[in-house]
What does this fold into?
Amino acid sequence: MITVNFPAVLHDVAGPSIVVRESVSTVGQLIAALDRLKPGLAKELDDPLYNIAVNDEILLHAVDSRTVKDGDIVEVIPSMAGG
Amino acid sequence: MPRDPQFSSQGKTLFVDLERRETHSAYTPLGVTRTLLGGRGANMYYLYRLLDETLTPLDPNIPMIFGSGLLTGLVPSAARGNLTSWSPESGVLLDANAGDYFPSFLRMNGFDHIVLYGRAPQWTLIVIREGVVSLEDAAPYVGMDNIDMREAIARDLGGTWKRNLAMANITRAGENGVLTAGVMAGPKAIYARGGPGAKMGSLRLKGIVTIAQTHEFETSQPYKPFNRVIAQKLLGTSVVKNALSKTGTPFLYKPSRLLGAMGTKNNQETTWTDALDAERFDPYRPGMEGCFRCPVNCRPLNDLHKATPDKYDQGDGPEYVTLGKFGPNLGIDSVESVIRLNNICNDLGLDTASTGSALGWAFELFQRGIITTADTGGIQLHWGDAATVAQLLFMTAAREGFGNVLADSTRAIEKGHYPAEARKYCIAVKGLGQSDPHDARILKAFALGLAVATRGMDHLRNRVTLEINARINDNPAFKTELYGGPVSAEPTSYVDKERAVRVCEDIYAVGDSVGMCRFTTKLFNSPSLPGIEEFRDQLSNVTGLEFTNQELEQCGLNVMGVERLINHRLGVRRKDDTLPDRWFDEPNPSGPYKGEKIDRQEFDAMLTRFYEISRLTSEGVPEESWRKELVGALGA
It folds into this structure.
């Protein structure tokens, strides 16, 4: 079971969080599982605005192959620049 | 200089001799526009021609130059202008950028640039009413900070903010020569970096007020249809739609702290509390504001919901920079404190980047015992003490007590306030404190950008923001297309990072020179925002000047080239394109990249590669053939 938390801007399409009970071992598989639960969500997440953090570790590259395991907390985080 | 416009929509350059109270005007030569465009670029032409480096920055014969971009006021999100001089804070190029309404309304009065010099016999207010310039007595406004002055000007001169009235003004901090003082361009908008407020104060110029009805410009071709294309592109981009227009820039705080890249306690630490995450500001954000004709509206307003609010309980902001500089940088963990300090800085006209840097430096020196209460007038400098920070802001603006030390910013050692050993803890490059709170030990493209930025340690000149974007890092073909060649996907790698910095520096310089906001320029926040192609097409419509993509990119490079020629005259060399010692010597203490730092040899090799692809010599100035081209175009 992996819990995925979403930022407010995605609450309309995903709600504040989704619990994935399907067995997955990578972030790529996790996103595919999310899309099965909420069709279209993978497309929403395929957006340069969003980064993904696993247990508060933000992933900057090689995201899809990053391993995840039961009990992990995954978070979708908007990333941008400021002044 | 030409007496007639050189292309459609061109405004005049107004020269004001404040000492003799004389004005005249002319037009920027066409060759300069084709080489450097307008705004920031053309400002460099004026500074290069008028700079006497045997003087000092606050000498009244060193000019101070306002310039609006070629598309400023006409195109959605192009509301920006630059202010250029020789910085009294850093000692190198001063070039600050602001939006709100002043840069656009200056153009509504028929002026693209204002070149100011000479010290006025008494405090002066320049009033430009429907294009007619008058120099008026500013005595009634002397001693006023931003809130009071804006109220007084609207009352005394008539007009309505955001409709037909705009102003660039200094506060008491500028009058008092505070080196972190900016020139305010609105309730929050500020020409911030490098001490422009002190420079304006040295000319005894309290403000420039523009009053004119807004209107459309006579352009070469109709431009509104393409404005709609640009607006759709802006509003259709995820970062605008889902982040900038809803919350504003504080979104960046969370990824920075999770990454272990959040400059904390003067960069001694690199992560901080979740109590300052963007959503914590939601209850205090009654709405969003925007600049002239910008559909994005990215500026959060604030309200602390006090039963009997004083003037600092409501305001405008904060942006991410202010959140970082007055949050983690000073060990402050309260949203309400950050908002209140932001509002105080907006009123006092203080650059939150430089002021926050000066405070963080002082607090660390106090922590280490390098300075004591004997130096601070009895004030204890303890991390997280927001009340003391507020007190110090007022003291800085007035140059009272220890505020006089903070007011000298990075020059505190040179002025005799701090011992030489304090230098080691100063987070600055080329004399300018870091603009944003991002600790770039991890991110090598960020680090190179901060090192080579021509105005000092500032991310807005060339930041490769997409380096922290996993979707782009994981798409090498797309990333190669964006930067014109491969760039390593790994944030900690030095490989090809110079290429990404070069491309960003060029497009941002073009953006500044046409007046486009950085937040909505391609590559800063998204690969899908307006960039060279859109600028090219709208320049053609508005000015009738035709540029190829390559020519526009060359203009961006030229702007950087002239800035480096100016800096070279001011003594800047390769050794100055560097980073704070802490980032070379101390490993990052937290986060997934714990232990990461900047390797001196790798950095030096990356800098060499950057110079090579930028047509710069080993000392960081344009190579001979290009230098001759630039100097020829400048007519110098």
Notes: Residues 256 and 337 of chain B are 20 Å apart (CA to CA). The longest helix of chain B spans residues 549-569. Chain B is about 35% helix and 10% strand.
